[in-house]
From TrEMBL:
<keyword id="KW-0862">Zinc</keyword>
<dbReference type="InterPro" id="IPR034016">
    <property type="entry name" value="M1_APN-typ"/>
</dbReference>
<dbReference type="InterPro" id="IPR001930">
    <property type="entry name" value="Peptidase_M1"/>
</dbReference>
<dbReference type="Pfam" id="PF11838">
    <property type="entry name" value="ERAP1_C"/>
</dbReference>
<keyword id="KW-0645">Protease</keyword>
<keyword id="KW-0378">Hydrolase</keyword>
<dbReference type="InterPro" id="IPR042097">
    <property type="entry name" value="Aminopeptidase_N-like_N_sf"/>
</dbReference>
<dbReference type="Pfam" id="PF17900">
    <property type="entry name" value="Peptidase_M1_N"/>
</dbReference>
<keyword id="KW-0479">Metal-binding</keyword>
<keyword id="KW-0031">Aminopeptidase</keyword>
<feature type="domain" description="ERAP1-like C-terminal">
    <location>
        <begin position="541"/>
        <end position="857"/>
    </location>
</feature>
<protein>
    <recommendedName>
        <fullName>Aminopeptidase</fullName>
        <ecNumber>3.4.11.-</ecNumber>
    </recommendedName>
</protein>
<keyword id="KW-0256">Endoplasmic reticulum</keyword>
<keyword id="KW-0492">Microsome</keyword>
<dbReference type="InterPro" id="IPR014782">
    <property type="entry name" value="Peptidase_M1_dom"/>
</dbReference>
<comment type="similarity">
    <text>Belongs to the peptidase M1 family.</text>
</comment>
<feature type="domain" description="Peptidase M1 membrane alanine aminopeptidase">
    <location>
        <begin position="235"/>
        <end position="465"/>
    </location>
</feature>
Amino acid sequence: MEQFKKQPRLPKFAVPKRYDLRLKPDLSACKFTGSVSIDVDVVADTRFIVLNAAELSINTGSVSFSPPNSSKVFEPSKVDLVEEDEILVLDFADTLPLGVGVLAIGFEGTLNEKMKGFYRSVYEHNGEKKNMAVTQFEPADARRCFPCWDEPACKATFKITLDVPSELVALSNMPVIEEKVNGPLKTISYQESPVMSTYLVAIVVGLFDYVEDHTPDGVKVRVYCQVGKANQGKFALEVAVGTLGLYKDYFAVPYPLPKLDMIAIPDFSSGAMENYGLVTYRETLLLFDEQHSAASNKQGVATVVAHELAHQWFGNLVTMEWWTDLWLNEGFATWVSYLATDSLFPEWKIWTQFLDETTNGLTLDGLAESHPIEVEVNHAAEIDEIFDDISYSKGASVIRMLQSYLDILAGNYFSEVCRRRNDGMPKSLASYIKKHAYSNAKTEDLWAALEEGSGEPVTKLMNTWTKQMGYPVVSVKVKDQKLEFEQSQFFSSGSHGDGQWVIPITLCCGSYEKKKSFLLQTKLETQDVKEFSFDSNKSSWIKLNVDQTGFYRVKYDEELAARLRYAIENKLLTGTDRFGILDDSFALCMARQLPLTSLLALMAAYREEHEYTVLSNLISITRKVGRIAADARPDLMDNINQFFINLFQYSAEKLGWDAKQGESHLDAMLRGEILTALAVFGHKETLNEASRRFDAFLNNRNTPLLPPDIRKAAYVAVMQSVTSSNRTGFESLLRVYRETDLSQEKIRILGSLSSSPDPTIVLEVLKFSLSPEVRSQDAIYGLRVSKEGREVAWTWLKDNWDYIEKTFGGFLISRFVSEVVSPFASFEKVKEVEEFFASRETPAIARTLKQSIERVNINANWVKSIQGEKNLGEALQELAYRKY
Ligand code: BES
Ligand code: ZN
């Protein structure tokens, strides 16, 4: 018995083959009863059966094992549910016979409020509050619903039967085969599933409407949502049908199930969940309202649907062996979702937007407290935290890097057509999927397939990216008509590590026609670039990491950096390359390898920038620089704000407040972001115009003066002037919040409220976030507070920690830590935070806490270095008043 405790994985002397699961939820009492008969293959001599279970009460009288070919039934002499280890240990008096027997267990549980396991979500119907029953099992919460071998590699088939109130809709992974109404209750049985992992099993019971369509090969696709909102499901339905067709061709395997349901759940902890055949979503990521949703909401829905449907193959059909390979699921689905979105909506330039993924990955992976893509997992509680920017964004980015490298070798370099069609990879991927379908795989299996398909040493290359954390910065210098390349591990803290990578380097010189590529396999390498007739002429710029497909940063010597600035000003570079130069410079500045004055001078070169993704990153950089400067040089803030306002003036004027007839999706998204930034930097005209339009909106929710794309900007602008003595704007926003039943609108408001510069208002917003008026899934949106609200948020977090810890499980809890702690920039705060959490650290927040503290240290050092920049004041004076 003791030998089974504290183990990361279950012993495998008995493994499940088939579950016959019956559940009866009681929606008013918030309880459920269930029974499960599991076909179990006993493969080694044992007296024990050990499986997972948690927060269930097992009706011990009902546990039995019927061995193969025998009429004897084994009753366990002991049944122990060990809550710390979430295991159920059945101890039999005799050794069990080998072969497949049936394990029967009866149990009971609570429909909890924690958005995991089998839980309840609350909705309103005809003005009345009702409960629905929902499951969320990933990563390891199926065990909270029924006893099972709750590991991704323990695949089995599932035959599910539900006893539910007759008037409700009850869905599961597979289609219904029989429904028997018996007065107030009905019994629904579903078709048996193919073999699958427990974390993908799903059940939803409640009242819903739906819209329906079919794929050309007859898969029935439905989008379910709150009664009365079926129209809002149409966009997601269209995307789903389109995407299923694409993936079928891309993976060369048809969608494996007879139906696909997608459903909006009002209380939902993550964004969406890829349950096999029954994908669950937050409302904001599934429903689209023509009248009140923004362009960014539309893009959100499309990419999330594309992501979850990618999992139906990559994740559900072929599943990671263990959570160490979680990135195979998430990194891959993220990458493929861009492929699908690009194909359905080419005008969104989604591959340029992909650079935000790369930036997010690079940002987290620049911390000493990061982790390798392939990460060791020893405890179920550690799994939630690795659903992070390493598994998703770095994972997706290194796949993109590999794809682009293979394309170059195949001679497809810079061929837009081939990049779009993504030649090279699909064949190998299809063979990987076929080979591991209905089974499990590891990272090395994917590399093996790609290696076989391409004939290239993929494993050797990719191991350097997935097995060690971090990434390199490549420093490039001109030396005697040659270029010298040096790699060293990049840390945002400014230190250097000793990691080494096999780096696919690409470069262009003076034009996109003159290009070169090679693998940098050593620390230092010199390359002859005679063929470029590289000379002292300024137009002879050199850009590395062409198109930004590589997962590394580049540091140019001063001469090369000046030439690139010239190339940006003269509009010689693509948007992706402009993005990369800016992003790398910002990272180098934070790491104190580039003075802030140089970064600001570079930013000035982006005044006429027009591309969405580049500007969006410029905005986020100005906001970060603005915050750090406020700590370092409060005396310079007027000039800093003025400089930033100047930077955005050009595009703000071009875009205006009103949408142009037939304008692009990207312009619609950009307008909102630019106006929000101008509001934050205190641009008077923007603030006034926002207030005028907001008043019109208060009088008429459908006013053309405040369409959804600019609402957030107006809300943020309104909150800039809210103080304890002038609360009108705040109260109006709360009124809109309470009135609307569109969750995207609620989130827009929640995300704007804490931008008030008055700490007492921020505190009020934080309290509101924890009130019953905000679903606990949404509390995190109020946490991004103004710089003036930072201190009050920290005090609030400490005061409410016990409650927060009790209420928010999974990865939501770690968001509280990172959002509140990371913005600080002093060593005193580091000490304070460490002291507070010394007695409160748990596995669920351990990693995030360390990362947040590291960020505070990085910020504090950055502040010090900015304070040491003697000519900053002068430089800003010039930038703020420069005439164009
Ligand atoms: N498998 C995840 C859902 C998930 C996340 C389960 C964390 C358990 C813990 C799903 O496929 C997913 O990745 N959802 C994303 C949305 C996606 C578009 C990036 C999410 O929830 O943020
Ligand atoms: Zn996913």
